[in-house]
Amino acid sequence: MHSSRLSVIGSHLAHAESQAISPSPLAMTANRTSPLTTHVLDTSLGRPAAEVPIKLYRTGERLGEEWSQVSSGQTNSDGRCNNLLNTLEAGVYKITFDTATYFNKNGIRQYFYPYVDIVFEVQDPNQHYHVPLLLNPFGYSTYRGS
Questions:
Q1: Closest among 82, 89, 84 to 71, alpha carbons compared
Q2: Hey, what CATH topology would domain 2-142 get?
């Protein structure tokens, strides 16, 4: 069963990479509606995490400045959220994933992280920023995707 979950996650990541390397015009329209996208995979179940509520915040350039919410959304059935922003500006952003809502909807009553905040800096707003979240009830991982 363990290798089966890894196989599903591996094939899902390989599919995402192939889309990023050589997307069709239709895939570009569907996947690049926002200069900032995210993707949540539930590694404990080996599948995308659907209907995870997401909030996007932005702050000034100084540490300790207040966060202002600029957008919100939720992941689709494929665990993706491709419509957070129409335009991106340089600055520091935070994506908050409401993981408690996701876990509770899926009957998972024991978890350690009720939410996950990922803070990152956009230096070149002309680039595309993809922020994946690999999630399970007792851990998570993230990286800058493509």
A1: 84
A2: Immunoglobulin-like (2.60.40)
* Average pLDDT of the chain, as a whole number: 84
User: Known binding site for substrate: residues?
Assistant: 39, 80, 143
pLDDT at 71 exceeding the cut of 90: yes
What dihedral do alpha carbons 95, 126, 129, 68 form, nearest 10°? Answer: 0
Distance CA 129, CA 36 (A): 5
* In the chain, % of residues over pLDDT 70: 74
User: What Cα–Cα distance (Å) separates residue 30 from each residue in 19, 34, 36?
Assistant: 11, 9, 13
Contact 115, 79 (CB under 8 A): no
Distances (CA, A) of 57 to 14, 37, 45, 84, 119: 30, 14, 29, 11, 9
The annotated binding site is made up of 39, 80, 143
Using DSSP's 3-state secondary structure scheme, residue 12 falls into helix
pTM, two decimals, is: 0.77
